[in-house]
């Protein structure tokens, strides 16, 4: 296919776009011929034509309309500007398949290609075998990739036509798109922000259209009732139609909320479901299926929401956001040349005007008495907290991107596109000018009163200083200068230049203890460095990363990037949580002083306030790896968690860490308290189980397994400890560590064991796809078959009459003691790893690799889907009172879910109104029909 033969609105779709250097044309012709012989449509530009604007757009259209992006690796292609531009276009939205035609220097390869598996088509390689590998790659997850391309091209057309409403999705197309969006979260390529926006706008338009239609029906029905009363006939029929129309409205609202929730739009989902819940309560219907649908939608929204407020007032991108030191004010700076000061309830306190160009950063002094702003008008302005302009500082010769106060409140630093960093005192007097482009011998100019900067380099991306910040002790300054990070001491001496970036560094900040630097770059990476230049960790995100900052306690950091998602990380670059909601890339973020809230600024013109803990959950941070299990003590006063870091952490019920226990030499997979709560047992891949006192003293070590120990449990009377192992056996011990019995029968890993409440039976789950029932003495009684893959977990109901099993086959199964299958629970979209009954036996909780926790009734109906983890969810455990559920995950966290009012409409409405109350009451962007929503509820 040649350039010039495709427009975006055309229906053509290609299996692959080929990016290559013209010097590799002979090979590309052979590859193209081989692919077209398989009836594959491939987009290749054969013509070496002028690089006109039309040509470039045609190339971009070809990339957008292709399912895959094939990059021909050779020394010429990695040095080609055109090839790099094509790659940048594809990084965010296409599955990239690198092909090696001629060997290259790996250090010169773009990170997006370097991290992928390469297919070798060199002259010394077998072409046919390589072609087979290529076609396998192209055909992997074909439905997802084709849908990705289809929705991308439609979204691009909609965007290019100024978001014409007639191009939005509706009906079946919209439902298909929403279903794809839900299931595409863990696929590659991932949905891009434009696709999410397009589908979300389509849903909003569809919901508005349905509400308008249904409102018309309701009005017509009301008129019909009046006429019927006047005529004395048909009243019941007219009333029935009115009720039916209102029911349809509630169904539409509930379905819209469910789809918004599953696609990460928790704030909008809560608002939509809250409307439905309040209307349901006001109408007081006894329609059980409809009531259940509305309650479930509200319930899911409440458990999934993190966004608590949003500020929609700026008329351009919001470049910067900052909390005041007392946490009571949020300042935002925008491309609309203003700074706005907000109270936490989103009511506007003040709009600061005076800058003549975009405002790129706003910062509070440590004492909260001064606000500084940096602008494209080449100035820094100092303001009083009441919004009064105190001073305008001049001196930079180009855009001022960044401004920062030293923690000791003695200095102000500014960073500019003119290639300099300037240090000022509190009154705006220039103290020093640091020439960031003279790395070996930085120019230090004291009290530069003439502002003569004729010696400074002309501005370009490699000479601009984009960001500056101080160390916690105020003794060092760190700057994002071109493609480097620079560290300076207080006197202006350059201490270190950290290189290794191929694109500009956009943000860099110290950890609270000063031991780490976190840097965000246009090259799509987050990197953590020691101040001496040692790289600690690196993560390639794909999208530009604009900012990265540590939480006040230093335990986590957050990033703002081009993918519209606010992300929380461990300093080892493990993703903890991802908050969705923005409609365009994030440009900045700020933690509240206590670290509980985060404000984000976006190119979509909004500021959003997020709570790290949601309405009904609390997140426990502390593990430095996957967390596999967490269990409550019988008195609910202690929670013990275990994981891949080989640590046992003991927490108070309120989430405060009590103690960390060490002793195991490999990851810990299982944990259990004795019935009296005095002993904690742990199971480890070091082939041992250990018994600990409640205070953390090691009591005994159970040695005997020849494989990893996955699970451990106490008998109800506390006299027996049971362990399950990768060696295929189950072992029974007393608390002194004496081996009592070894149970054999399983032919593969035994994951866990559960006792019946009377202690007479045990049930075990295994990778051999069976559940086995044993007597207390160790005699095998039954083998349950039915699962088609590994079984990860099994549990008895409290009454001892039912067994539930969780499997790699994505299902849960309920059995009676005779092995009869009672029910199969389906709903998880990935392997189910954990399962347990609530203390009253009425609820089943399951955890899965699809990142969700599900609550079920015993008849198989879903009660709730709990979303909050950012990765695979492993362990699941109820508190003894049944009011709290603990879940553990590969995102390094434990989440405590508050299950109060789980199915109570009144309680759910109260929770929703408490969360959204300030937004509804004070936010100027709220629709008037919604402003009194919670007043009506009261």
Average pLDDT, rounded to a whole number, is: 88
Structural class: alpha+beta
Helical content (DSSP H or I, runs of 4+): 10-25%
Indicate the CATH class of the largest domain.
Mainly Beta
The proportion of residues in beta strands is 35-45%
CATH topology of the largest domain: Methylamine Dehydrogenase, Chain H
How many alpha or pi helices?
15
Count of strand segments: 62
* Strand order, largest beta sheet: 2-1-3-4-5
| CATH superfamily annotation of the largest domain | YVTN repeat-like/Quinoprotein amine dehydrogenase
Number of domains: 4
Structural overview:
This protein is an alpha+beta fold and 938 residues long. The chain folds into 4 domains: 14-140, Rossmann fold (3-Layer(aba) Sandwich), CATH 3.40.50; 193-305 and 907-937; 316-451 and 459-613, YVTN repeat-like/Quinoprotein amine dehydrogenase (Methylamine Dehydrogenase, Chain H), CATH 2.130.10.10; 618-899, YVTN repeat-like/Quinoprotein amine dehydrogenase (Methylamine Dehydrogenase, Chain H), CATH 2.130.10. It is 23% helix and 36% strand. It contains 15 helices and 62 strands. The strands form 15 sheets. The chain has a 5-stranded parallel sheet, sandwiched between helices. Strands 15-16-17-18-19 form a 5-stranded antiparallel sheet, with no helix packed on it. It has a 4-stranded antiparallel sheet with strand order 6-34-33-32. Strand 49 and strand 50 form a beta hairpin. The protein is globular, with a radius of gyration of 31 Å. The termini are far apart.
């Amino acid at each position: 296919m040649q350039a010039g033969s495709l427009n975006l609105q055309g229906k053509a779709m290609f299996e692959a776009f080929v990016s290559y250097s013209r010097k590799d044309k002979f090979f590309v012709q052979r590859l193209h011929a081989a692919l077209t012989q398989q009836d594959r449509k491939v987009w290749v530009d054969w013509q070496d034509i002028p690089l006109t604007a039309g040509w470039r757009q045609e190339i971009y259209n070809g990339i957008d309309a292709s399912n895959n992006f094939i990059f021909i690796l050779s020394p010429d292609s990695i040095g080609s500007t055109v090839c790099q531009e094509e790659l940048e276009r594809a990084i965010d939205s296409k599955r990239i398949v690198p092909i090696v035609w001629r060997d290259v220097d790996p250090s010169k390869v773009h990170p997006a290609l370097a991290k992928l598996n390469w297919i070798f088509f060199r002259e010394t390689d077998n072409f046919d075998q390589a072609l087979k590998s290529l076609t396998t790659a192209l055909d992997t997850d074909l439905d997802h990739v084709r849908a990705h391309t289809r929705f991308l091209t439609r979204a691009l057309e909609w965007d290019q036509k100024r978001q014409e409403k007639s191009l939005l999705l509706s009906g079946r197309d919209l439902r298909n798109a929403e279903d794809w969006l839900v299931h595409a979260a863990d696929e590659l390529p991932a949905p891009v922000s434009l696709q999410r926006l397009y589908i979300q706008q389509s849903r909003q338009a569809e919901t508005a259209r349905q509400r308008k239609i249904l409102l018309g029906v309701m009005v017509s029905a009301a008129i019909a009732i009046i006429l019927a009363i006047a005529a004395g006939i048909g009243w019941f029929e007219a009333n029935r139609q009115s009720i039916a129309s209102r029911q349809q409205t509630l169904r539409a609202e509930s379905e819209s909320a469910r789809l918004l929730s599953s696609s990460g739009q928790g704030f909008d989902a809560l608002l939509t479901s809250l409307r439905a819940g309040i209307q349901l309560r006001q109408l007081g219907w006894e329609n059980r299926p409809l009531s259940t649908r509305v309650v479930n939608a509200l319930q899911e929204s409440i458990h999934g929401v993190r966004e608590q407020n949003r500020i929609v007032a700026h008329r351009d991108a919001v470049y910067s956001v900052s909390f005041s030191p007392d946490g009571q004010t949020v300042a935002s700076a925008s491309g609309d040349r203003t700074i706005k000061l907000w109270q936490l309830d989103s009511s506007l306190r003040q709009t600061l005007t005076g800058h003549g160009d975009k405002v790129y950063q706003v910062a509070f002094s440590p004492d909260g008495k001064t606000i500084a702003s940096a602008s494209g008008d080449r100035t820094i302005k100092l303001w009083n907290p009441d919004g009064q302009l105190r001073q305008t500082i001049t001196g930079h010769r180009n855009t001022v991107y960044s401004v920062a106060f030293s923690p000791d409140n003695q200095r102000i630093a500014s960073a500019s596109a003119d290639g300099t960093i300037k240090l000022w005192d509190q009154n705006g007097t220039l103290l020093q000018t640091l020439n960031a482009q003279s790395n070996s011998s930085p120019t230090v100019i004291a009290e530069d009163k003439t502002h003569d900067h004729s010696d400074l380099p002309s501005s370009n991306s490699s000479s601009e200083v984009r960001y500056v910040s101080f160390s916690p002790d105020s003794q060092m300054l760190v700057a994002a200068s071109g493609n480097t990070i620079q560290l300076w001491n207080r006197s202006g001496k350059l201490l270190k230049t950290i290189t290794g970036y191929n694109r500009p560094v956009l943000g860099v900040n110290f950890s609270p203890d000063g031991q780490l630097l976190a840097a965000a770059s246009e090259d799509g990476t987050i990197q953590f460095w020691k101040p001496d230049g040692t790289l600690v960790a690196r993560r390639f995100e794909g999208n530009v990363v604009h900012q990265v900052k540590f939480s006040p306690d230093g335990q986590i950091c957050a990033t703002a990037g081009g993918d519209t998602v606010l992300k929380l990380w461990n300093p080892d670059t493990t993703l903890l949580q991802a908050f969705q909601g923005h409609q365009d890339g994030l440009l900045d973020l700020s933690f509240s002083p206590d670290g509980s809230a985060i404000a984000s600024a976006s190119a979509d013109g909004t500021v959003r306030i997020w709570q790290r803990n949601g309405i009904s959950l609390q997140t426990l941070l502390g593990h430095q790896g996957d967390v596999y299990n967490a269990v409550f003590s019988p008195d609910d006063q202690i929670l013990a968690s275990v994981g891949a870091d080989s640590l046992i952490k003991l927490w108070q019920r309120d989430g405060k860490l009590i103690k960390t226990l060490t002793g195991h030499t490999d990851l810990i997979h299982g944990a259990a308290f004795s019935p009296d709560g005095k002993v904690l047992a742990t199971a480890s891949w070091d082939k041992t189980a250990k018994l600990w006192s409640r205070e953390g003293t090691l009591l005994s070590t159970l040695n005997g397994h020849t494989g990893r120990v996955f699970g451990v449990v106490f008998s109800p009377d506390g006299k027996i400890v049971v362990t399950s192992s990768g060696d295929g056996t189950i072992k029974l011990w007393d608390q002194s560590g004496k081996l009592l019995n070894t149970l054999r029968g399983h032919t593969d890993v035994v994951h866990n064991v559960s006792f019946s409440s009377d202690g007479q039976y045990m049930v075990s789950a295994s990778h051999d796809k069976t559940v086995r029932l044993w007597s207390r003495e160790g005699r095998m009684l039954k083998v349950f078959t039915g699962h088609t893959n590994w079984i990860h977990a099994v549990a008895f109901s409290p009454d001892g009459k039912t067994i539930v099993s969780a499997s790699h086959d994505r299902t849960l199964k309920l059995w009676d003691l005779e092995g009869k299958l009672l029910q199969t629970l389906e709903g998880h979209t990935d392997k189910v790893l954990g399962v347990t009954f609530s203390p009253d036996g009425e609820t089943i909780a399951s955890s899965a690799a699809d990142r969700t926790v599900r609550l079920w009734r015993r008849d198989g109906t879903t009660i709730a889907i709990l979303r909050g983890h950012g990765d695979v969810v492993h362990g699941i455990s109820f508190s003894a009172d049944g009011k709290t559920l603990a879940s553990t995950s590969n995102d390094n966290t434990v989440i405590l879910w508050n299950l109060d009012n789980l199915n109570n409409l009144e309680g759910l409405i109260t929770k929703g109104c408490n969360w959204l109350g300030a937004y509804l009451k004070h936010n100027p962007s709220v629709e008037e029909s919604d402003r009194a929503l919670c007043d009506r509820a009261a």
